[in-house]
């Protein structure tokens, strides 16, 4: 017992040694727990990422608490001594304070958690870790409608949560409202194509449409809003230069969105070719800019450059003018 008290007195006397020992023990415990959670798998699951994030944050908070208790008397004396320069300290550490308060705001509002898809400003991705200072996401290409990982990891300081709105895209992980357009430069009646186009799209969606309807209904109940139905939607409008724009909105599995888009584009082009074969043939045989089409007969009118003789051109004209003026004088 006397030896134990002697060790405690020694550690309390030499607090720097005690602090280093605490950091070493906490670091070893953190590494052991993270290895235990990770196991031997090559790819982390969503639950593993959640527990790893909780372990990191828990060990960090525990370390801060123990060190605060150990250095409490010194911290009180330091706080009294820096009262006069408190304003300068706040200004210098503004970003750190914003990151800490951003972490509190995220935790209190429960805007997202590990595994959610979020969008902050121009960045979007899946949350793989977060702590009191920053949030780490695996970037996803939503800007081009690809819905796949780019391989880039972005670290967002928590202060961004006060500058940019945080959009939770978690419902897009399984199903997504995918939008795309097809521009038709010819002003023709496209409405007769819609019934056959709907039939082909429904054939593509036949194996998952029931699941899509249930998932759509679940999202409506959870969000408390009336979303568009899970059925495909086709609208015909005008583009900026006067062309016709066919807008498609489909509710489909996220990983299959681009595949279905390509199939629908192919279906539309096939139906358009069948409905307007002559127009498609003319478009395929459109001559270059230096050719003219008159009564469906292609007459090539090459734009030949005009050769100028030495006595022609602006320079020769000026020279003749000056010579004539000199002779008159």
From TrEMBL:
It comes from the Bacteria. It is found in: Membrane. Gene3D superfamilies: 2.30.30.60. It holds the Pfam family MS_channel_2nd. InterPro entries: LSM_dom_sf, MscS_beta-dom_sf, MscS_channel_2nd. SUPFAM superfamilies: Sm-like ribonucleoproteins. Its main location: membrane. Residues 100-170 form the Mechanosensitive ion channel MscS domain. The chain crosses the membrane at residues 12-34. Keywords: Membrane, Transmembrane, Transmembrane helix. GO terms for molecular function: mechanosensitive monoatomic ion channel activity. GO terms for cellular component: membrane. This is Mechanosensitive ion channel.
